[in-house]
Amino acid sequence: MISRDRAAEILRFLIAGALNTAFGYGLYAGLIWLGLDRYLAQAIGYVLGTGFNYITYSRGVFTGAGPAKMRFALSYAGNYLINLAGLKLASHFIADPYLAGAVTTFAVVLLNYAVLKRLVFRA
């Protein structure tokens, strides 16, 4: 059973993640709509979303941790590569770039929490 503090942290993570996902996926979808290639759109979304996500996670979720900008940037570089591989895989089965991007985004949520909790935002 998880503690009340951990449950509250997970809830804050999910709320911040929903906001971050709306920002990042909205940017991705907007760039696709403007005619960009799905992989370029994903790269631009990740770069612009990383700073936004750092603020929401560091100030809203993992509030007891010290500064972790470099670890966060490195974790997001790894996250991006995993997400890119997922998008490539999903694109073999899902022709629609919007749906392929959405599936890929949601598939990495649990991994992202574990990495942020264990490796990035340490007390």
TrEMBL record:
Subcellular location: Membrane
One GO term (biological process): polysaccharide biosynthetic process
Keywords: Membrane, Transmembrane, Transmembrane helix
Segments passing through the bilayer: 12-33, 39-56, 68-86, 98-116
Pfam families, per the entry: GtrA_DPMS_TM
Primary site of residence: membrane
Membrane topology: Multi-pass membrane protein
Lineage top rank: taxon: Bacteria
GO cellular component, one term: plasma membrane
Positions of the GtrA/DPMS transmembrane domain: 12-121
Cited InterPro entries: GtrA_CellWall_Glycosyl, GtrA_DPMS_TM
Family: Belongs to the GtrA family.
Protein known as: Putative flippase GtrA
Source organism: Novosphingobium sediminicola
Phylogenetic placement of the source organism: Bacteria, Pseudomonadati, Pseudomonadota, Alphaproteobacteria, Sphingomonadales
